[in-house]
Specification:
Elements lengths: L10 E4 L5 E2 L15 E4 L35 H7 L8 E5 L6 H14 L4 E5 L4 H10 L7 E5 L3 H11 L3 E5 L16 H18 L2 E6 L12 H5 L2 E6 L6 E9 L7 E7 L2 E4 L18 E8 L2 E13 L7 E4 L3 H15 L6 E7 L11 H13 L7 E3 L2 E2 L5 E2 L4 H11 L3 E5 L13 E5 L2 H8 L6
Parallel strand pairs: 4-8, 4-9, 5-6, 5-7, 7-8, 15-16, 17-20, 20-21
Antiparallel strand pairs: 1-2, 1-3, 9-10, 10-11, 11-12, 13-14, 14-16, 18-19
Helix pairs in contact: 7-8, 8-10
GO biological process, one term: recombinational repair
Family: Belongs to the RecA family. RadA subfamily.
Keywords: ATP-binding, DNA damage, DNA repair, DNA-binding, Hydrolase, Metal-binding, Nucleotide-binding, Stress response, Zinc, Zinc-finger
Length: 459
């Protein structure tokens, strides 16, 4: 009796990293991505035959470098983040939460490019052409060579690019475009990979700059396959609070420039406007100093921003004392409060403490620890800090004040705004020259900083 032939067992493969398994699982065991493991047939290894070379390799010194020169977008803050502008053939992925201003900014960029005698194609997969036209009228983004198409099919989008032959293409968004050659709903891993790869191939072959709008997940990461971020040349992240008009744009990846630049924008009813000098947004103008306020200078990329930290210390109502923060990291705030009580003797265990920033700015840099601590001391004693004083430094658990980077740049920005005194960690200034009119006080620990800021204090 002939033995039964056993059918081959199906294998499963992760579409993100290539990890294989003998049975289906919901989460990849290698890259930990969800929903990326699919059944894959076992195929023999293939070797691609050599093809006829149409463009032979040339010495690197003979390559025309002018084809990779950046062209300004007309928005200075956006150019700062991109490294000078858009490079022909470059593909930029602009990601951010819904309603944060991505479409508004890119429509403004498209209109400014069109006004410079460039042909621009704006493809909307989320809104109708009439809806985009209404927004363009509201932000004054109407231009003669700005073409608009509402499409969601990849083949049609590529056909539009071939017909218009634009210098710049804006696609809003990559997750809404689908390819008929790939199964699955719009936005899934396979669809996003195929759409992005096709658009990038056309952009490189024709020297077209492309701006792709990307969605983000609930945790803030870019939706779709991780390979999307590897395929594009630049990844730009939009940040900002919904209740604030301030928007920060930073480059997460940039093949043509630095990734430590930050662009600042003001989002209003008439559009989004760059803010070349945003420091004044994060300060409260007063005639007299007020207790519970401290000023620091934080570095967003290379850009120093003067920001105000406010504190309120109130008697607790029994039970555990409340610790509430807005715009500051709650863990760092809790640590600073504990150091104040343990190392300086400021009694806070039976008091509620509220800490906040001004203007909706978010501060995560440890250099703001000292200003936060001094604001709490001022709120506890009811006495304001000296007028025109800033504080910069990281507070350690031992009560020491540690040095931070970029102190000369921070002091120069504070002096430009009008501050005349600074409390900084000892040794962080080096041999740098002080800005004119700036008095610097160096401290070793938090207790010394408190004595300088509030002499003859009461604990």
């Amino acid at each position: 009796m002939a033995a039964k032939t056993r059918s081959p067992r199906p294998s499963y493969k992760c579409t993100e990293c290539g990890w294989t398994a003998v049975k289906w699982v919901g989460r990849c065991g290698e890259c930990q991505a969800w929903g990326t493991v699919v059944e894959a047939g076992v195929t023999p290894a293939r070797t691609a035959p050599a093809a006829v070379v149409e463009r032979p390799a040339q010495p690197i010194g003979e390559v025309d470098a002018t084809r990779a020169e950046a062209r300004s977008t007309g928005v200075g803050e956006f150019d700062r983040v991109l490294g000078g502008g858009l490079v022909p053939g470059a593909v930029v992925l602009v990601a951010g939460e819904p309603g944060i201003g991505k479409s508004t900014l890119l429509l403004d960029v498209a209109a400014r490019a069109a006004r410079e005698s460039r042909s621009v194609l704006y493809v909307s997969g989320e809104e109708s052409a009439a809806q985009v036209r209404m927004r363009a009228e509201r932000i004054e983004a109407i231009a003669r060579t700005l073409y608009l198409a509402a499409e969601t099919d990849l083949a049609t989008v590529l056909g539009q690019i071939g017909q218009v032959e634009p210098d710049l293409v804006v696609i809003d968004s990559v997750q809404t475009i689908t390819s008929a050659e790939v199964d699955g709903a719009p936005g899934n891993v396979s669809q996003v990979r195929e759409v992005a790869a096709s658009i990038i191939q056309h952009a490189k072959a024709r020297g077209i700059a492309v701006l792709l709008v990307g969605h983000v997940t609930k945790d803030g990461s870019i939706a779709g396959p991780r390979v999307l971020e590897h395929l594009v040349d630049v990844v730009v992240q939009f940040e900002g609070e919904r209740h604030s008009r301030l928007r920060l744009v930073r480059a997460v990846k940039n093949r043509f420039g630095p990734t430590d630049e930050v662009g600042c924008f003001d989002l209003s009813e008439v559009g989004i406007v760059g803010l070349p000098d945003p420091s004044g947004l994060f300060l409260t103008r007063r005639d007299q100093p007020v207790s519970g306020t401290g000023v620091t200078v934080t570095l967003e990329g290379r850009r120093p921003l003067v920001a105000e930290v406010q504190a309120l210390v109130a008697p607790g109502g029994g039970g555990s004392a409340r610790r509430t923060t807005s715009g500051l990291e709650s863990s760092r705030a809790a640590m600073v409060l504990a150091v104040l009580e343990s190392r300086v003797g400021i009694r806070l265990r039976d008091h509620d403490c509220y800490l906040s920033t001004v203007g909706g700015v978010r501060i995560a840099e440890p250099a703001s620890d000292l200003a936060m601590a001094l604001a709490v001391v001022s709120a506890s004693s009811g006495r304001p800090l000296p007028a025109g004083c800033i504080a910069v430094g990281e507070v350690g658990l031992a009560g020491d004040v540690r040095a931070v980077g970029g102190v000369p740049r921070r002091l120069a920005e504070a002096a430009r705004i009008g501050f005349t005194r600074a409390i900084i960690p000892r040794g962080s200034l080096g041999n740098e020259t002080l800005p004119a009119g700036m008095r610097v006080i160096e401290v070793d620990d938090l207790a010394s900083a408190v004595d300088v800021a509030q002499p003859s204090r009461t604990g």
